[in-house]
Specification:
Helix content: 25-40%
CATH superfamily of the largest domain: tm_1862 like domain
Number of domains: 3
Radius of gyration: 22 Å
Number of strands: 19
Shape: globular
Strand order of the largest sheet: 2-1-3-4-5-6
Largest sheet: 6 strands, parallel
Structural class: alpha/beta
CATH class of the largest domain: Alpha Beta
Number of helices: 14
Length: 441
């Protein structure tokens, strides 16, 4: 009888892609997935530590999952990811129920860590820097929930020094994956039926800069687009400083690159951007947006925003609202500033009271809600291309437009994985009701 595993993932798309790789590793060891943690032989939490809330959630889940050992004393509980890397043995002391712990540096060591834990040892492998054999992880398959869209990690780590961020400490400095390895995975995925490739990295647009002979990220976009069967390409997350003209020109030139981009600006005030050590100004960010729209007029933008960074004044916050009004993002991911231990921002004077952060966040979300409603109306009556990804009930399917909007239309499972042309009948901020015009391919 095969053993079962249960994975709970917190955080960003990189973490979800890591979980897909971990699932692939566990499959090679003979484990089968289960949706019920109470029947699992291995429970694994893949963690995030960007903000304090996920940290608390992980401890809460560990308290609940420890019950599995009452029924199955041989069951193993593992913690992976950024919180594991940042906290190390301190987390094990707070939650002794942990049997296995590792970070994104050494996912490939999971088979031997499981062997150690089954032998009765605490299998804790937290490294100060990535090991020389880190690339071994690419040899394992990924286990995907979506058969038609796949994440492909192309770079790990970050060389930026944002004063609020723990990523350089938890993920390390930038390490680009080789072009050959990326293209091999893309080809395997396409052979497996994948039609959309989503390139991932903490700073995806910095890919290739750390090679002995640097290669521009734009060249990778061209090479991925040449793989037969790749219908769509997306990438997340870039840094405004690394969004160079050649990347923008490649986005406009390559038919498969979707007209949607996530480009964090974090704050609109130049003073706050300097305190964050973001390395650009409000004017520079808006110039990048203008350049994008000159080349790709219908591009849909999304972004990240931090509200209530230390010393943020009302005037500073108004600068953030001004960027939101000018760019008109289709989606924003906004967060109240959360001081992370060991970062310069955590010790800055002028920490903002939570009630002020909450009030500013409400104003930001009210503005964004109005903008999203207006943008949604502009979709009505338009013709869009949709990649159908899943069924909804007996007679409907859902998929995404090139601008990353969810679309619902009448159809059956015969449309799954197909690119279709639709007309938008009615639009809301989070869904487009459409009618099918034709199947493209």
């Amino acid at each position: 009888m095969s053993k079962k595993f249960f994975i709970k993932t917190f955080g960003c798309q990189m973490n979800f892609n890591d979980s897909e790789r971990i699932k692939g590793i566990l499959r090679t060891l003979g484990y089968e997935p289960t949706d019920n943690w109470q029947e699992a032989d291995l429970i694994l939490l893949n963690t995030c530590t960007i903000r304090e809330k996920p940290d608390q959630k992980v401890l809460s889940h560990l308290g609940e999952y420890r019950k599995v050992k009452e029924k199955n004393p041989k069951a193993l509980i593992a913690v992976a990811g950024c919180l594991a890397q940042r906290s190390g043995w301190e987390l094990v002391q707070r939650a002794p129920v942990i049997d296995i712990m590792f970070s994104s540096f050494n996912m490939h060591q999971l088979p031997e860590l499981i062997n150690q834990a089954q032998a009765g040892y605490k299998a804790i492998a937290i490294l100060e820097k990535p090991p020389e054999d880190e690339d071994k992880v690419w040899e394992f398959p990924t286990e995907r929930d979506n058969p038609y869209c796949a994440y492909v990690t192309i770079i790990k780590g970050c060389d930026k020094n944002c004063t609020y961020c723990v990523v350089p400490k938890t993920r390390g400095r930038e390490r680009s994956r080789s072009m050959e390895s990326i293209l091999e995975e893309v080809k395997r995925l396409v052979d497996d039926g994948v039609r959309e490739i989503h390139l991932l990295g903490q700073n995806v647009t910095a890919w290739g800069k750390d090679f002995e002979k640097p290669i521009p990220f734009s060249e990778l976009l061209y090479q991925v687009s040449k793989v037969e069967g790749v219908e769509r390409i997306r990438f997340t997350t870039g840094h405004p400083k690394d969004l160079t003209d050649d990347i923008i020109e490649a986005m406009a030139d390559i038919p498969q690159v979707c007209n949607a981009l996530h480009l964090p600006f974090q704050a609109g005030s130049d003073r706050i951007l300097t305190l964050m050590d973001r390395g650009y100004t409000k004017e520079f960010y808006l110039e990048r947006i203008q350049k994008l729209r000159e080349h790709i007029p219908d591009i849909a933008m999304s972004t990240d925003i931090i509200v209530g960074f230390p010393t943020e004044t009302e005037e500073d916050f108004e600068e953030t609202l001004d960027v939101v009004r000018k760019v008109r993002f289709e989606q924003i991911f906004s967060f109240k500033f959360s001081p992370r231990p060991g970062t310069p921002a955590a010790d800055m004077e002028g920490q903002i009271p939570d009630e002020v952060k909450t009030e500013r966040m409400k104003r930001l979300l009210d503005l964004q809600k109005q903008i999203m409603s207006e943008i949604a109306k502009s979709y009505e009556g338009t013709v869009q291309e949709v990649l159908v990804e899943e069924t909804k009930g007996e007679d409907q399917v859902i998929g995404r437009t090139t601008t990353n909007k969810w679309a619902t239309l009448k159809g059956d499972k015969g449309l799954l994985g197909k690119l279709v042309k639709v007309k938008v009948l009615k639009a809301s901020p989070f869904n487009l009701d459409c009618e099918l015009l034709e199947v493209i391919r």
